[in-house]
Amino acid sequence: MVIKNNQDFFNQTIPRGRAYGLGLSFDMINDKERNFLYDNLIKNNVYNKTCTDIGFGSGILTLMCLHHGASHVYAYEPDKTTFDFGYEIISQFGLSHKVTFINDYYDGKIKTDVTVFEQFSNNIWGEGLLSILNKIPDNTFIIPHKLTAKLVATKFSSYKFNQSLSKLDTGIPYLSNFNKIWNKIIKSDNFFTISDSTFKITNFEKILKTFDYCLKKPLDTIISTDFVLEKPCFITCLFYIDSMMIYNGHWNIDKVIYIKNPGVYSFNQRLTDGQWWISKKELF
């Protein structure tokens, strides 16, 4: 059952602050660069075609597809409150008759001409994108259809190293070595990782490696590529959806790694969750 025209329900269940827990990100909805990018990609590829919208949320991408002439949209959304809210928005646009609403996770069983999705995190893959792409039927045009990563040497406007490691005390006597073992596992003499998402890149000195993800099924679970580092520096990975660097909008930088020694390194990324790391191969 869809809750329709119930303003009391939506007033009390749709937060006024950050509603990401429901799949409704206000920052994303207000990300104009992202909206213009999707609008242009959809405009050129959906006329008179059937479309799938994976995780339709507030319904923005479904509305874009219909505005640009899609004949029908199959809109998937697993969260019930988000589903009802998105249904209500699309209905009040007068377009619900052109949409099949599916309150479930995308399973790839319905084949359409075009599939649109926006299951991205600040490392591209952190919201289950690998599983989604592997379910999309062959010969389906996907939007966006190009994902790119650039490993760059970068600068910070200011930063002081804090070399202290975690202080852990479980309170359980037989786990007294927990802190020692924890810090032994994460310690490195060559790498120092900064995960504070408030840091902003002021500029980057050099692109160390650029690669486009291969989106043909079956997608690899882990990818690796080598690069050369000529001097100690901060590095990070910048991710692009089509031509848009995702950190220009509502996403923050995933992490930055300081590497002390020049040499040959390997960039690795696990696409099941997007986690990426640097491995030492040969020091100069």
Detail the topology: elements first, then pairings.
Elements: H1 7-13, H2 26-29, H3 32-43, E1 50-54, H4 60-67, E2 72-76, H5 80-92, E3 99-102, E4 114-117, H6 129-135, E5 141-143, E6 147-155, H7 178-186, E7 191-194, E8 203-212, E9 222-229, E10 233-241, E11 244-245, E12 256-259, E13 263-270, E14 276-283
Parallel strand pairs: 1-2, 1-4, 2-3, 4-5
Antiparallel strand pairs: 6-8, 6-10, 7-12, 9-13, 10-11, 10-12, 13-14
Helix pairs in contact: 3-4
Can you put this structure into words, describing what you see?
This protein has two domains: 7-118, Rossmann fold; 149-283. 21% of the residues lie in helices and 29% in strands. It is built from seven helices and 14 strands. Strands 6, 7, 8, 10, 11 and 12 form a six-stranded antiparallel beta sheet that branches. Strands 3-2-1-4-5 form a five-stranded parallel beta sheet, with helices on one face. Strands 9-13-14 form a three-stranded antiparallel beta sheet, with no helix packed on it. Helix 3 (32-43) runs parallel beside helix 4 (60-67). The termini are far apart.
Question: How much helix is in the residues?
Answer: 10-25%
Radius of gyration: 22 Å
Largest sheet, strands/sense/barrel = 6 strands, antiparallel
**H/E element order:** HHHEHEHEEHEEHEEEEEEEE
- Count of distinct strands: 14
Structural class: alpha/beta
Query: How many domains comprise the coordinates?
Result: 2
As residue ranges, the low-confidence spans are none
Number of helices: 7
pLDDT averaged residue by residue:
85
| Strand percent estimate | 25-35%
State the end-to-end CA separation. Answer: 65 Å
Overall geometry comes to globular
Query: For this entry, what is the oligomeric state of its chains?
Result: single chain
